[in-house]
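Re: export button greyed out
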Amino acid sequence: MKKIAIQGEVGSFHDIAAHEYFSGEQIELACCSTFEEIFNAIRRDPTTIGMLAIENTIAGSLLHNYELLRQSDVTIIGEHKLHIEHSICCLPEDDWESIKEVHSHPVALQQCRNFLSAHAELKAVEAEDTAGSAEYIASHHLSGWAAICSAYAADIYGMKVLEQDIHDNKHNYTRFLVVANPLEAPELFPANKATKASLVFSLPHEEGSLSKILTILSFYGINLTKIQSLPIIGHEWEYLFYVDVTFDSFTRYRQSIDAITPLARNIKILGEYSEC
Amino acid sequence: MKKIAIQGEVGSFHDIAAHEYFSGEQIELACCSTFEEIFNAIRRDPTTIGMLAIENTIAGSLLHNYELLRQSDVTIIGEHKLHIEHSICCLPEDDWESIKEVHSHPVALQQCRNFLSAHAELKAVEAEDTAGSAEYIASHHLSGWAAICSAYAADIYGMKVLEQDIHDNKHNYTRFLVVANPLEAPELFPANKATKASLVFSLPHEEGSLSKILTILSFYGINLTKIQSLPIIGHEWEYLFYVDVTFDSFTRYRQSIDAITPLARNIKILGEYSEC
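Workaround output, generated via the alternate export path:
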C-alpha cells in the first residue's frame, strides 16, 4: 500500500487528486497541514509519496511550492489535473435561513466571490482547509455555520449540500505534482519513459540570455509548455526561470539539457515524468 | 488636481502607492471596491488615472488584473514598487488580552501566516480590504476586533498599533501599474521617453515559436525583465505570453515590435512607460 502525503484533510481536493492519480491502487493518506510538512514526511520516510498543488487556472502558480521544490531533494514523478468544483454545505438540520457564516480556505473563498457577494448576509471566515471546515462543523455540531468544499467532502462528513458549483469561473483547474525521494523514484516511474520535464535555472539580466537557451531547446525539438520568470530577491539583476518542456525523444531531451547547462546558472531538473 | 482610482479604502496600500508615485502633486482618490471598478471609473471619466497592483514578490502575479488590462482599452503610463509592511491594530482601549478576532484582506492574512499561527487564539476573518477593516472597526467601535493593515492606515483611523512588521517574509514588495485612457496618456507621459514596455501576445504550441520572438528582441538589444506564459482556456494548444521589456533606445524598441508582430498572434502593447 502506497503512503501519500497530501496538504489538507480527508475529502480535500488533494485527496481527490491523489485518489484519481492512483486510481485502482490501494493508498493510505498522510494529511499534512502545510506544504512544508509534505517534504518533511518524505524526508522521514523515503517511501512516502507527496502530492502538491502547483498551479491553478485562476489563481496562477503557487510560487511558494516552486520554491520548496527547488530547495528540496525530492523529484517530480508525475502530474495530475483536477477540475475544481466548490459546493456550500451545512449541518443536515440547518438551511439557508439559519446559516450565518461560511468557512473555507482563503483561495476557495476568493474563487466564490460572486456567490459571496450575492449572499452578503453570510460572513466569510478564513480557515486552514476546505474539507477541514466541513469536518470541523460536523464534529463540533456547529449550527449556523456553513463550509465551502467539494461535494465529495460534504458527503464524507455527513453534511448537507445547499448548492453545488458556486465558483465564479467554471474553467477552474488545479495542476498537482506527484513527488518522491529520488532513490525511490526509478521504481515508481522510470525516467526514460518521460515525455515531460520541469527545470529551474537562473540567468544574468543580459540581453538574449534567455533566447539562447530557448533557441537551443527548439533546435533539439523540445517544446515549451510553461515559462515563468521570478526576480531573485537580493540579486537585483538575476532571474530564476521555471520552465516545463515536453518531448518525443528522451535521448534528445537529455542532450538538450547537456547543451544548455553551460549557458545557464544552477540548472536543476525538478523531475522527468509523463505528461497528463 | 489629478483624480486617481485605486482599489481599496483611504489608507490602503494602493493609497500609499498612489501618494508615493504622485508625490509633490495634489491628488484626489476615487476608492473602488474591485479592480473592475477602476477600469469603469476611467471609462466614465477619461481624465481619471488608475493605480492597480500587478504582482507581489510572495503572492506572484495578479493574473486577473493582467486579463482586465488585456481586455481593456487603457494603457500603462507608469509603475511603482512598494515595500509591504503589515501591522496589527485595534481600538485604543483594547489590548492583546481583549482582542478575539483579526480582520483583513485574504492576501494580507496569508502573508502573516506565522504571526497568526503563533496567535492561534485569534480568529482570522476575511474582509474586503486591509485599511477597510481598520476603518470598519473604528467607525463601528468594535471592541475585541483587530485589523491587519499598514501602520499608516491604523494612524488614519485612530487605531492603536499592537505590533508592527508582523508579515512572515520581509522581502514583501508589490508592483503597481499606473493606467490611463490612451487619449489622455500622451500628456501624462510622452511614450518616446519610455524605457520599459509591457506586451501580451499569443503563440501556437509549436517548437521554437517563443525562441524566435525572443531572439529577434535580443538582436534589437531589447532586455526581458519578466515573462509569464498562460494557457488560453478553451484553446488547448495556444498560449498567452505576458512580457516586460526594457531598452535604451525607444526607436530600436519600436522597430523590434514591428519585427516580431508578423510572428506573434494578437500582439498588444499594454503600455510604454518609465522603469522605476
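The CA atoms of residues 33 and 186 of chain A lie 28 Å apart. The button fix ships in the next patch.
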